[in-house]
Amino acid sequence: MRSAIIRILLLLPAVLLLSAGAPYSNARPWKVTAYIQSHLYLAKELHLETGIPVPFILAVAGLESDWGRSELARHANNHFGLKVKPEWRGLQYCKQTQEFSGLDAYQETACFRKYPLIRRSYQDFGRFITARKNYQATQGLSVWDYQGWAEAIQQGGYATDPEYAQKLRGIIWRYQLSEFQLTD
């Protein structure tokens, strides 16, 4: 009897620890949860201004900025990996980056847009996606068609990674980002 009580007392902390976890503790690492808590309002604002789905915005920002921890996010407030284009008149931040030619990855130096505030990065992403002709395929897509959004920007040339759309869909699904979509 005494040994049974001792076993129960030894197992009790483990059982309590396992049962007390948050429902998304395994689904979302702390860096993802922290990023969402800090930036969800920006994604919602951008959605209301542009119609771009909140989960899609969060997935692109998370992938491109490593959930706010990348060099580009920390030093240039660029959470979407937007590069300098000929029309860009703002600041820039140049660094080594991985690109793809087909399935072959290589390193090159590229210059990216630099922003004084993270909010400007979100706003610029919205303008970039809604105003450029190569992303017209996003127009008319449902806010729930994350696969369509991911395929449209990949086909429009947003990233050279041939698995970019698949990565975005995986992030939305794995981290249950669809729960943040506003129902306009």
TrEMBL record:
One family from Pfam that matches here is Glucosaminidase
| Molecular functions per Gene Ontology | amidase activity
UniProt keywords (A-Z) are: Hydrolase
All residue ranges annotated as the Mannosyl-glycoprotein endo-beta-N-acetylglucosamidase-like domain in the record: 32-181
Q: Which SMART domains match?
A: LYZ2
Transmembrane parts of this sequence: none
Q: What Gene3D superfamilies does the entry give?
A: 1.10.530.10, peptidoglycan hydrolase (2.10.70.40)
Q: Which residues form a coiled coil?
A: none
Identify this protein by name: Mannosyl-glycoprotein endo-beta-N-acetylglucosamidase-like domain-containing protein
Origin organism lineage: Bacteria, Pseudomonadati, Bacteroidota, Saprospiria, Saprospirales
